[in-house]
Design goal:
The complex is a heterodimer of chains A (384) and B (143). Chain A has 384 residues and is an alpha/beta fold. Helices cover 32% and strands 18% of the residues of chain A. Chain A contains twelve helices and eleven strands.
C-alpha cells in the first residue's frame, strides 16, 4: 500500500467573525462556517458528500454531523461526530482523508464552532468528561488546574519560569495585533504578563486562552480533484495521533504528552523533520501547552523550550513563527479549528495581512490537544 | 446533594458514593482506611478511579487492600480563583497530585501546610477529613 502523504488536499476553508457573537447560536455559527468554506472553495452544498464535526458540549446535539449536514443541504455518504476535545479539528481532517481513501466519500467538509463567550441559547445540558468526581471534591475544577500541574512539574524538572511562558503569550499577542479577526489585539509586555492576576499558580491570566464565539471549516478532497477548485490546494503531507492517558490520575508524565509519538508518525508519513517546518500552529489553550509541544515536536530538546522561545525565534520573521494568527490565547478559542485555517492561508500566500505572512511558507505543522492533556493530533501541511 | 432540572443528582464538588466500582473505596475512607484494588493475577495496583477489570492485564479478580497511606507529591498547584461557591473563602488553596507508595495516584489536597510550602517530591501521608455524608483522603507532610 502506497503512502497516503500528498494524496489529499484542503481545497476550501472558512472562518466566521470571532469574539462575542451574542445573536449567534451553536447551529448558526456552524452553518456560517460551512457556507464560508464552500464559498471559498467555489462549490455548491450539493457537491459535498461527507461531513465531520466536533461533538458539541451540549447533550441536545446528538448525531450532530448528520443534523448539520441536512441543515446545510448536504446528503452525506459519510458523517460522524468526533470527540477528542481540542484534538478534534485535526482528527476530523485525518478522518476525512481516511474516509475518502476508503471510497466512502469524495468531498468532505470538516466544521467546528463554539458559543462560549456569550450565552448559548441552545436548550440542553452540558456534557461532562465523566471523571470529575475524582477531582472536584478536592477543589480541582478547571482546565487551568490541569495545565497548571503540567507547568508546575515542567518548572520543577527543567527550571522553566513564568517569565519564559510569558514569551509565548507576548509573541502570540503580537501576531493577534496584526490579525483583523482577532479578539485581543493590544500588545502586551513581560510586565503586563507578570502583573496579570494568578488564576491557578503557576499560571496567570495571560497564560490562559480566551472563551470565544465563532466557527471554522475546511474542505478535503483528493489531490487529483483538487486542481479543479478555484483556490490553490494545500496538501496533507503527514498525520498522527497519540492519546497517552485519559485523566491526571493515569498520566505517566505531564511534561511529555501525546505530541511526541503523534509528531513522529506525522514526520515519518511526510518524510520530513522539524527543520523543514516554515511555521508551527501549536495548540495554546495555555502557554505551557505550546512550550511542551515545541519540545515534543523536536524543535528543541525536552526542557529546552524555555530557551527556544526567546529572542524572537517564535515571532513572524523568526526561525519558527508560532501561532501566526494569535492562537487560542489572543485570537479566539475554537479548539484549534483556526490553527488549521491559518495554516492553509499561510501556505496559499496572499491571504493574510501582509505583515503577518510568513515569507516563502512551503510547509507547516499544526497540533491539536484535548482533555486533561490527554489527546493529541498532528497535521503536516504543504503548499502544492 | 443538589439536583438539576431533570432531577438528576448534580455531584459537582462531591464524590459519587454509589458508583459500584468505587463503593468499597468510599466505605473504607469512612473508616479512615486508604484502600486500592490489587489484581489477583498480575498483582499490580489498579490505580484510580476504581474499575471492574485490571487495567494492566484485564483480569477480573482483584482484592481491596489497605495501603500504607504514604505518598509523594508529583505536582502541586494553588487555586487563586474559585470555580465553586464552597471554595470562595478558601483561596488560595493547594491541590496536589499524590503518587501513592504502592501505586496509583490521587488528586487531593496537602493540608497542615501553607500552599506555598507544598513542594514537588515532598513525602506525604494520608489524613482523613470527615464531612456529614462522606470522608475524603487528604495528605500532610511527613514530619
Amino acid at each position: 500500500m502506497g503512502s497516503i502523504s500528498g494524496k489529499y488536499c484542503i481545497v476550501g476553508m472558512g472562518e466566521t467573525a470571532v469574539g462575542k457573537r451574542p445573536d449567534a447560536t451553536t447551529n448558526s455559527l456552524h452553518l456560517e462556517a460551512i457556507k464560508a468554506c464552500l464559498d471559498d472553495a467555489g462549490i455548491k452544498n450539493s457537491q459535498v458528500d461527507g461531513l465531520l464535526t466536533n461533538q458539541p458540549l451540549n447533550d441536545s446535539h446528538r448525531s450532530y454531523a448528520v443534523k448539520l449536514s441536512h441543515m446545510a443541504g448536504i446528503d452525506p455518504l459519510y458523517a460522524t461526530d468526533l470527540a477528542l476535545g481540542g484534538a478534534t479539528p485535526i482528527a476530523m481532517v485525518e478522518h476525512a482523508v481516511m474516509a475518502i481513501d476508503a471510497g466512502l466519500a469524495t468531498t468532505v467538509v470538516c466544521v467546528h464552532a463554539r458559543k462560549r463567550s456569550t450565552v448559548d441559547p441552545t436548550p440542553g445540558h452540558p456534557i461532562r468528561r465523566g471523571d470529575e468526581h475524582w477531582e472536584e471534591p478536592w477543589g480541582h475544577f478547571a482546565a487551568a488546574g490541569g495545565h497548571a500541574f503540567a507547568a508546575s512539574r515542567h518548572m520543577h524538572e527543567f527550571g522553566t519560569k513564568s517569565e519564559d511562558l510569558a514569551e509565548i503569550a507576548i509573541s502570540t499577542r503580537k501576531h493577534a495585533s496584526l490579525n483583523k479577526n482577532a479578539t485581543m489585539r493590544k500588545p502586551i509586555s513581560l510586565e503586563d504578563h507578570q502583573n496579570s492576576r494568578m488564576i491557578v499558580a503557576p499560571l496567570r491570566l495571560l497564560d490562559c486562552s480566551l472563551e470565544s464565539d465563532g466557527g471554522g471549516a475546511v474542505l478535503v478532497t483528493s489531490t487529483e480533484r483538487a486542481r479543479d477548485f478555484q483556490k490553490k490546494p494545500v496538501a496533507i503531507l503527514g498525520m498522527g495521533q497519540h492519546h497517552p492517558h485519559f485523566s491526571l490520575l493515569d498520566a505517566p508524565t505531564l511534561v511529555t504528552l501525546g505530541g511526541k509519538k503523534s509528531s513522529e508518525t506525522a514526520y515519518k508519513m511526510a518524510g520530513l523533520s522539524p527543520k523543514d517546518m516554515d511555521f508551527a500552529q501549536l495548540y495554546d489553550c495555555f502557554t505551557i501547552t505550546s512550550m511542551i509541544t515545541l519540545e515534543d515536536y523536536g524543535f528543541c530538546k525536552k526542557g529546552e523550550g524555555k530557551d527556544f522561545v526567546k529572542n524572537g525565534r517564535i515571532s513572524i520573521g523568526g526561525e519558527l513563527p508560532l501561532n501566526t494568527h494569535g492562537g487560542l490565547l489572543s485570537q479566539a478559542h475554537l479548539e484549534g479549528q483556526l490553527h488549521i485555517t491559518e495554516a492553509v492561508k499561510q501556505l496559499r500566500g496572499n491571504e493574510v495581512e501582509p505583515e503577518r505572512q510568513v515569507a516563502n511558507a512551503k510547509v507547516g505543522i499544526v497540533s491539536g490537544h484535548g482533555g486533561s492533556l490527554a489527546m493529541h493530533a498532528t497535521l503536516i501541511l504543504g503548499a502544492l | 446533594m443538589s439536583k438539576d432540572e431533570r432531577g438528576r443528582a448534580t455531584r459537582r464538588g462531591q464524590p459519587y458514593l454509589e458508583e459500584p466500582e468505587a463503593k468499597p473505596f468510599w466505605a473504607a475512607c469512612r473508616e479512615h482506611k486508604l484502600t486500592a484494588q490489587r489484581c489477583s493475577s498480575c498483582k499490580n495496583i489498579f490505580g484510580f478511579p476504581p474499575q471492574a477489570l485490571c487495567p494492566h492485564c484485564l483480569a477480573s479478580e482483584y482484592e481491596w487492600i489497605e495501603l500504607s497511606g504514604k505518598g509523594t507529591v508529583y505536582s502541586q498547584i494553588a487555586y487563586h480563583r474559585s470555580w465553586h461557591p464552597a471554595y470562595q473563602d478558601k483561596i488560595p488553596y493547594n491541590v496536589s497530585l499524590v503518587d501513592l507508595a504502592e501505586g496509583g495516584r490521587l488528586v487531593t489536597n496537602v493540608v497542615d501546610c501553607a500552599p506555598e510550602d507544598v513542594k514537588i517530591g515532598m513525602p506525604v501521608e494520608v489524613v482523613f477529613e470527615d464531612f456529614p455524608e462522606y470522608t475524603l483522603p487528604k495528605f500532610r507532610p511527613v514530619k
